Amino acid sequence: MCNGSLFHFQPSDDPGQAALRLDPTQRSDRPVSALLYGKFCEHLGSNIYQGMEAQVLYNPTFGDPKVREDAFTKIAARFGWPDAKPVAEAYADGGAFGWMRVGPDGAVQLSPDAGPYGARAQRVETPAATAEEMKC
C-alpha cells in the first residue's frame, strides 16, 4: 500500500504475471453497505434449475400436462405427504404442481378456460362461499 491508500496499482514488466497483496490491518474509513450484497441463490438448486424463468412452478398450463403418477408418488413420499392423488388430480385439471383444492367439491376452479397447454399464467377461482361452506 502506498500513501495510506486502499488500492495501489503497480505495473509489471512481465505481462503474464499478476500479483495481489492484501494488508488486513489497513481499513477504510467508509463502511461497506449491507445493501451491497444480494442473495446468492446457486446453492438453492430448484431456484435455479426450475425457477429462475417465467415458469416458477411445474405448471401444466405452461407446458406438458401429462400426469406421471410415479413422479408424484415419489415427490409426495419425499415431502411426507400421505397421498399424492389430490396433487395429481389438481395438476391434471390445470393446477401448478403442489397446489391442491381445499374445501368442498367445486369450491375451487383451476384455470378453467386455459386448461392444459394454455398460454397464460396460473389462475385460481373461488366462487363466493360462506365460512360454513368452506369447512373441511
Report the end-to-end length measured between terminal Cα atoms.
Answer: 70 Å
Outline the biggest β-sheet: 2 strands, antiparallel
Q: SS-based structural class?
A: mainly alpha
> What is the global morphology?
elongated
Enumerate the strands of the largest sheet in spatial order, edge to edge or round the barrel: 1-2
The number of helices is 3
Q: Would you report the number of β strands?
A: 2
What percentage of amino acids are in beta strands? under 5%
Rg over CA atoms, rounded to whole Å, is 27 Å
Return residue spans where pLDDT drops below 50 for at least 5 consecutive residues: none
Helix coverage percent: 10-25%
Element order: H for helix, E for strand: HHHEE
Query: How confident overall, as mean pLDDT?
Result: 69
Outline the secondary-structure elements.
Layout: H1 46-49, H2 69-79, H3 85-92, E1 109-110, E2 124-125
Antiparallel strand pairs: 1-2
Task: Describe it.
With 136 residues, this protein is mainly α. The chain contains three helices and two strands. The protein has helices at 46-49, 69-79, 85-92; strands at 109-110, 124-125. The longest helix has 11 residues, at 69-79. It is elongated, with a radius of gyration of 27 Å. It starts with 45 loop residues before the first helix and ends in an 11-residue tail after the last strand.
Outline of the structure:
The chain is mostly helical and 136 residues long. The protein contains three helices and two strands, in the order αααββ.
Output the keywords.
2 strands, 136 residues, two-stranded antiparallel ribbon, mainly alpha
